[in-house]
């Protein structure tokens, strides 16, 4: 390079930091294993705290490992805080809790983060066909504590019905259920209202075309967006970790400033590419590494409809 060259590269900037508090599996992809890598591919510096460490996800019917003691999590989070991480955290992402006490730890952690740091809460409780698969007090924590504190929640259809108290058979039902959650209890003050955004991650209703599945994004201001993609006919109902990965990719899109429609479009395209690659390879786990290019540069997009 000649001495007269003046176009020097700009100074490198630190990657935006995200704190992800979720489960962890040693084998396969669920919880933090399904969420951290996509966010890293999108350019985020993710600090992962594990609520459990299992050998594999529980869908196999047998696993080894432990739910971490709440004191263990408090000490890990204190150590992170002591390094100054909380001061520059751009987002808090949470998923499977493991125990009700972990919910209280998340609320305590939220108080220590910057005032405008959004909490993206995946209210992991259960699924259609399986019912609840968490400890009894955890669903109530999400309904009574998380809804008024989270900026964005990402329920599946089963979780949306529980949180809203509604039976959902149509798209109109789903939109009405989201409005109930946005508004909070009838006596709620502005501070007690529900989340700003609700992303329904897997929506199949009487209105859904055959062999298809939708995602619905509802905003407290009344805007609503929906995207529908083909549904792969897999041997298993769904890939474990799908919701964790969905929350992560959508979070990454929002935090880098994409508008709602664009964020939903990118998320749906990424997921379809990853699922299609996984389906073609075969097996029970998300093929996240072979399919990783779809995280940042998905190939097939689907129309987002503003309802």
List keywords for this structure.
single chain; 307 residues; alpha/beta; UDP-N-acetylmuramoyl-L-alanine:D-glutamate ligase; ten-stranded mixed sheet; two-stranded antiparallel sheet; 12 strands; globular
Topology:
Layout: E1 17-25, H1 32-41, E2 45-54, E3 65-67, H2 70-82, E4 89-94, H3 100-112, E5 119-121, E6 126-127, E7 131-132, H4 137-146, E8 152-153, H5 157-164, H6 171-183, E9 197-203, E10 212-219, E11 224-230, H7 242-255, H8 260-281, H9 293-296, E12 304-306
Parallel strand pairs: 1-2, 1-4, 4-5, 5-8, 8-9
Antiparallel strand pairs: 2-3, 6-7, 9-10, 10-11, 11-12
Helix pairs in contact: 1-7, 2-3, 5-6, 7-8
Question: Care to give the gist of this entry?
Answer:
This protein has 307 residues and is an alpha/beta fold.
């Amino acid at each position: 390079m000649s001495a007269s060259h003046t176009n020097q590269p700009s100074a490198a900037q630190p990657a935006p930091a995200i704190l992800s508090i979720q489960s962890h599996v040693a084998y396969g992809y669920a919880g933090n294993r399904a969420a951290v890598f996509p966010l890293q591919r999108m350019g985020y510096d993710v600090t992962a705290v594990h609520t459990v460490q299992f050998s594999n996800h529980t869908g196999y019917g047998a696993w080894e490992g432990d739910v971490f003691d709440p004191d263990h999590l408090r000490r890990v989070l204190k150590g992170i805080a002591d390094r100054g991480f909380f001061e520059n955290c751009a987002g808090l992402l949470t998923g499977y809790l493991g125990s009700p006490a972990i919910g209280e730890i998340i609320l305590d952690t939220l108080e220590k983060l910057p005032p405008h740091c959004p909490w993206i809460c995946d209210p992991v409780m259960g699924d259609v066909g399986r019912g609840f698969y968490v400890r009894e007090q955890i669903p109530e924590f999400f309904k009574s504590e998380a809804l008024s504190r989270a900026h964005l929640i990402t329920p599946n259809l089963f979780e949306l019905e529980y949180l809203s108290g509604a039976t959902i058979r149509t798209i109109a039902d789903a939109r009405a259920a989201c409005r109930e959650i946005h508004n909070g209890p009838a006596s709620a003050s502005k501070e007690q209202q529900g989340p700003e955004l609700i992303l329904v991650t897997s929506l199949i209703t009487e209105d859904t075309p055959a062999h298809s599945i939708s995602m619905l994004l509802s905003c407290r201001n009344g805007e609503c967006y929906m995207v529908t993609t083909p549904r792969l006919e897999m041997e298993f109902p769904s890939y474990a970790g799908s919701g964790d990965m969905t929350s992560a990719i959508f979070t990454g899109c929002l935090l880098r400033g994409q508008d709602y429609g664009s964020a939903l479009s990118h998320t749906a395209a990424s997921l379809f590419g990853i699922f299609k690659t996984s389906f073609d390879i075969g097996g029970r786990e998300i093929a996240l590494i072979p399919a990783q290019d779809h995280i940042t540069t998905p190939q097939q997009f689907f129309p987002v409809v503003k309802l």
